[in-house]
Specification:
Elements: H1 6-18, E1 25-30, E2 41-44, E3 49-52, E4 58-62, H2 64-76, E5 85-89, H3 93-105, H4 111-118, H5 122-132, E6 140-141, E7 154-155, H6 156-166, H7 172-192, H8 194-197, H9 203-208, H10 216-230, H11 237-240, H12 266-279
Parallel strand pairs: 1-5, 6-7
Antiparallel strand pairs: 1-4, 2-3
Helix pairs in contact: 1-2, 4-6, 5-6, 5-7, 6-10, 10-12
Length: 283
């Protein structure tokens, strides 16, 4: 049984209605041995017709969310029309399961890579600006885990997620202005703590502190928001951060020794917002 994400289905529906859904391939399996007749599927090349015979069970091996979104779109607007590529298999249930498993484990796509390629949100526009025009240049990773000695500091997904959660961005103009502010914020942060942010090998820093861990950047974005709202000069950033204990086993003891974006769960987001926005004094 498929596990569906209603938000994804709605996004696909809207893309299809606007004509922006990329043509892709659906993979169906006419399950071998389920037909009431001799064959599960019959193809007639003379009239290009394909018949699924009585009793045949048809599984969706790839494309269920897209199909669900397209069906919802056509229900609302029957005049919509789009051709898709269809791959039809005739496997047993066991072989179909192996096929599905291979499709979903051989080349998994990182969330950060999807976010970078999709750039659906204004937050992604801001991350793109920071990626090429700030101290974060060459320090934003599209992989989900950042090694202890890696020069990367934050994942693409974490940064865009934090910006999207913290700020209300209604236009590209807003996005460009905010990217300039965050550029200055991170410059101040990095030069205030150069050993923790600007070294090529950050393993020593990461072994003693969480100050440059990926998840903590979610908190920095909320701190930037609070300082901007209060008109606090960025020059005060180093002093303000003295209120936060970054030492291992202290404030952020829930973070493991591994530095990866899956640690940025709902509970950690809530805690980071509390520490860096609700409780911190920026006056």
């Amino acid at each position: 049984m498929p596990k569906t994400n209603p938000k994804s289905v709605e996004e696909i529906k809207e893309l299809f209605k606007k004509g922006d859904l990329i043509v892709s391939m659906f993979t169906f399996n006419a399950r071998f041995g389920t037909s009431d007749e001799d064959e599960e599927i019959e193809y007639n090349p003379s009239d290009l017709s394909l018949t699924v015979t009585k009793g045949t069970l048809v599984d969706v091996l790839d494309g269920y969310h897209r199909i669900s979104g397209v069906v919802k779109a056509i229900t609302e607007a029957p005049e919509l029309d789009q051709t898709f590529i269809l791959n039809i298999l005739n496997y047993t249930e066991e072989k179909a399961k192996r096929h599905f498993a291979q499709m979903n484990t051989i080349n998994p796509v990182e969330k950060s890579r999807i976010e970078e390629l999709g750039q659906k949100r204004y937050s992604s526009t801001i991350v793109e600006q920071l990626k090429y025009n700030s101290e974060l240049k060459d320090k934003i990773s599209v992989q989900s885990e950042i090694g202890m000695s890696s020069p990367f500091l934050v994942t693409y997904y974490t940064l865009s997620e934090a910006i999207d959660d913290a700020f209300e961005i209604n236009s590209r103009r807003d996005a460009i202005q905010l990217s300039k502010y965050l550029r200055d914020f991170f410059a101040e942060l990095f030069y205030a703590f150069p050993d923790d942010f600007l070294e090529d090998d950050l393993s020593e820093s990461r072994n003693r502190s969480y100050i440059n861990y990926n998840a903590v950047f979610y908190g920095y974005i909320y701190l930037a928001k609070k300082m901007q709202e209060n008109g606090t000069p960025l020059a005060k950033l180093a002093t303000i951060l003295q209120q936060v204990d970054f030492d291992k086993g202290k404030t952020f003891k829930e973070l493991s020794s591994r530095n990866y974006e899956e640690q940025l769960n709902a509970a950690m987001k809530k805690k980071l917002k509390k520490v860096f926005y609700d409780e911190i004094d920026v006056r």
